[in-house]
Amino acid sequence: MDKILDPRLQRLTLINEPLPAKPELDQLPTFEVFVKSRAARPWRHEGSLHASTLEMAFVFAKEQYSRRGTCLGIWVIATHDLFVTDYADNQTDIYDQFTEAPGCSGEAWEVFHMYKRGTQHTHAGQVSAPTPQAALACARNALERPRPVLNAWVGAAGKFRKSTPEEEAMWQTTPEKLFREAIDYKTNEKIKAFKATQS
Amino acid sequence: MYGGGYLFEKTSPDLLKEEDQEKLAAFEARIDRGEKIEPHDWMPKLYRQQLIRMIEQHAHSEIIGALPEGTWITRAPGFKRKLGLMAKVQDEVGHAQLLYSAAETLGKSREQMIDDLINGRSKYSNIFNYPAYTWADSCFISWLVDAGAIVNQVANSKGSYGPYCRALERICIEESFHLKFGHHCVTYLATGTPRQRQMMQEALNRWWYPMLMFFGPPDKISAHTEILMRWKVKILSNDETRQQWLDMYVPKIWELGLTIPDDKLRKNEETGKWEFTQPDWEEFKQVINGNGPCNKERLAVRRMAEKRGEWVRRAILVKASNKKYVTPLA
């Protein structure tokens, strides 16, 4: 190996040979993350992450999905706790598959809609029902949808880790961290002054 | 950050003959209409395979790309530069997480991807196999390598695979700070004392040809790339991204009174294209095959991280053992 330039590594022993194969279970469960960026916007799916517990997923979600921009709150749920519908064909509504409402009471469910391919799922509302399929049948009439829904996700409200109003304090200092913003790095004056010395 | 010059597997278009022709036609019609493909949609094997490969290489590049800059955090000149660089490196690692997730939706687990990286089975952007000797090298990366990555990422965000596009949109927004931060760092060196200026010029001389290589070898249009372009896996050719970068950044480099180590570099006003001395493509091949100045060091660092983090993973896996791993949704 050539001379290592990293000051930390000059002091450490590096491993050159392949590592032994990892045990098959060396894989953490995945979680889905929803963020509310502003009061007027719905909760929106931002992405997924790996963590060992719901609480750890919540901490990672804060770092990963609200590090650079502030927000009003975060919801996290284990991927396997979400019920996922098929994708509807164009012009058809996924709700056409959920017509029989067997009585809309029981557990509370959060329902998310995707209206167009390429966009993210957004929160449509909460319904009460005995099962996720029933929740969709209930949501069909109870929740507004501006256009046909392509794909829906349903998760029991109790399975989410939702940020509380008190926890909003953790985003308070985000806007002060200007060193993460492009706007804090102005070069025009410096370049203008430099050009003046050159001509 | 990542450039073009993805290494796509050489696969034969014959593979398409085995596909269900009706489904294939519907898939292609969807892309032609400008619609995105989502994880649960039917897709040809070749599409899935090449996308996994591309997104995975991109993710690895974010992780490995954080190494040359990461080592400069403690030595960055002043508190403000340290804060800025630390935030940038944190972003890059975050980008890798987003990209690994996007690749995972196609069916390859993150653990498998990391395993392939540290055992040398996967590629990443070639430029990170070159060393960052001085602070000015780190500044070059922050500004100009990121600029190259943005050209490529903006193009790819118009691709056909939904989760990759969404990850890239997020990444592009964050990269705008990297670009400004890098330009600020380079500007201050280039317009500073004669020694600072010399340091910046020397870094530019070192990085110029690796930077041209960053976009990949000149295009040879094959049936293979033609399919990838039709499916909007690859959006711009290597030469197109290289030209775009030259067009946007050569004037900005000159503006700072820096010189580019190529007498032949000029814009042909008739063709509107930049003419330049080709980098040594044999060197490119050598570096990509593991013989660059830092290839072994980069992987060794990742192996060390893997080894040192093992006890943490083992400790938290116990808690996770009641939950089965499932592919993330989008």
Description:
The complex is a heterodimer of chains A (199) and B (330). Chain A has 199 residues and is of the alpha+beta class. Chain A has one domain: Roll (Ubiquitin-like (UB roll)), CATH 3.10.20. Chain A has three helices and eight strands, in the order ββαββββαββα. Chain A has helices spanning 54-65, 132-142, 188-198, and strands spanning 30-36, 44-50, 73-78, 82-84, 107-114, 122-129, 151-156, 161-162. The radius of gyration of chain A is 24 Å and the shape is extended. The relative contact order of chain A is 0.15. Chain B is mainly α. The mean pLDDT of chain B is 91. A two-stranded antiparallel sheet of chain B has the order 1-2. In chain B, a hairpin with a 4-residue loop joins β1 and β2. Chain B has a single domain (13-320), classed as Ferritin (Up-down Bundle), CATH 1.20.1260. Chain B is globular. Chains A and B meet through β2, α1 and α3 of A and α3, α4, α6, α11 and α12 of B.
Task: Write a concise synopsis of the structure shown.
The complex is a heterodimer of chains A (199) and B (330). Chain A is built from 3 helices and 8 strands, in the order ββαββββαββα. By secondary structure, chain A is of the alpha+beta class.
CATH architect. name of chain A? Roll
CATH class of chain B: Mainly Alpha
Write the element-wise H/E pattern of chain A from the N-terminal end onward.
EEHEEEEHEEH
Going by helix content, strand content and strand pairing, the class of chain A is alpha+beta
Number of alpha- plus pi-helical segments of chain B: 12
Helix count of chain A equals 3
